[in-house]
Design goal:
It is built from five helices and eight strands. It has 139 residues and is of the alpha/beta class. The strands form four sheets. Strands 1-4 form a two-stranded parallel sheet. Strands 2-3 form a two-stranded antiparallel sheet. Strands 5-6 form a two-stranded parallel ribbon.
């Protein structure tokens, strides 16, 4: 998104560096958050992108601030995109119900149990149902 010129704010549970992982085991890029999740004002944003990866996504779904932020974005009708294991947070926030979702295959049962229709296909640009990278970049 940054490469497309979209302003990006990185928010985290704590005001500490975020260690990304490649393949859930090898250290990737370290990111400095701009804000904590509690400091995010949803009024100032059009899109919420939830990162993927098993470990960080699992930690986010246990974070009350992350769950609340997803709920607020979804209630306001704003775009919420989730990558890989990120849809765990959509299930936790109870915003997957009635939506069509794709994810890493191991989340299919979790998303179905959360009321979503899970599909094993590439995301498509269908407002209110699925989001792809182009949709996020132009929101």
């Amino acid at each position: 998104m940054k490469a497309a010129g979209v302003p990006v704010t990185v928010a985290a549970s704590k005001a500490e560096p975020i260690q990304t992982l490649v393949g859930d085991k090898d250290p990737g890029e370290t990111l400095e958050p701009n804000l904590t999740l509690d400091e995010v004002d949803p009024e100032g944003y059009d899109v919420l992108v939830i990162p993927g990866g098993t470990i960080n996504a699992d930690a986010l779904r246990l974070d009350k601030s992350a769950v609340s932020l997803v709920s607020v974005f979804a209630s306001a009708g704003k775009t919420v995109a989730a990558i890989c294991h990120g849809p765990w947070l959509l299930a936790e926030a109870d915003v997957a119900r009635g939506k069509t979702a794709t994810s890493y295959p191991s989340l299919s049962t979790d998303l179905r149990n959360a009321g979503a229709t899970w599909v094993d296909e590439e995301p498509q640009d269908v407002r209110g149902q699925r989001v792809d990278a182009a949709d996020v970049a132009h929101a």
